[in-house]
């Protein structure tokens, strides 16, 4: 079975998060994207402590599509250095993992 990844990124607002999520699913780079609004981020940027309300995206994809997914996030993300973190799940329900692999195949039309 294809290696599944959970990729995370944060967007500055719900509208940009939904736009990116739609692009990723429509291009089959992701099987599903969860948009989690109301995330409060505190981070250091260019020597200053920043506070931001963001929307976290949890993106389900496969390893074989990761490079394209990362490129699409970078192209459509407003941040200079967006958070893009990919995690392989240590376990998952096989039918769900198979669905992710099926939905991220390049040769299937939506």
Structural description of this entry:
The protein is α+β, with helices and mostly antiparallel strands and 110 residues long. It has one domain (4-103): Alpha-Beta Plaits (2-Layer Sandwich). The chain contains three helices and four strands, in the order βαββαβα. The chain has helices at residues 14-26, 66-76, 94-103; strands at residues 4-11, 32-45, 48-62, 85-87. It has a four-stranded antiparallel sheet with strand order 2-3-1-4. A hairpin with a 2-residue loop joins β2 and β3 (48-62). The longest helix has 13 residues, at 14-26. The chain is elongated and about 45 Å long. The mean pLDDT is 95.
Level-1 CATH class name: Alpha Beta
What string, H for helix and E for strand, traces the elements in order? EHEEHEH
What gross morphology would you assign?
elongated
Mean pLDDT: 95
- Beginning-to-end CA distance, first to last residue: 22 Å
Give the number of domains.
1
Helix content: 25-40%
The Cα radius of gyration reads 14 Å
Beta-strand percentage range: 35-45%
Total strands: 4
- Biggest β-sheet strands, sense, barrel: 4 strands, antiparallel
Please identify the structural class as seen in this structure. Answer: alpha+beta
Strand order of the largest sheet: 2-3-1-4
Number of helices: 3
CATH architecture: 2-Layer Sandwich
At the fold tier of CATH, the topology name is: Alpha-Beta Plaits
């Amino acid at each position: 079975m294809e290696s599944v990844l959970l990729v995370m990124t944060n967007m500055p607002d719900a509208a940009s998060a939904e736009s990116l999520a739609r692009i990723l699913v429509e291009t089959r780079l992701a099987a599903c994207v969860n948009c989690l609004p109301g995330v409060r981020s505190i981070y250091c940027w260019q020597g200053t402590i920043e506070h931001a309300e963001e929307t976290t995206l949890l993106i389900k994809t496969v390893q074989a599509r990761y490079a394209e997914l990362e490129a699409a996030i970078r192209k459509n993300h407003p941040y200079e250095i967006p958070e893009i973190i990919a995690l392989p799940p240590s376990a998952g329900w096989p039918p769900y993992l198979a669905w992710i692999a099926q939905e991220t195949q390049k040769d299937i039309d939506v």
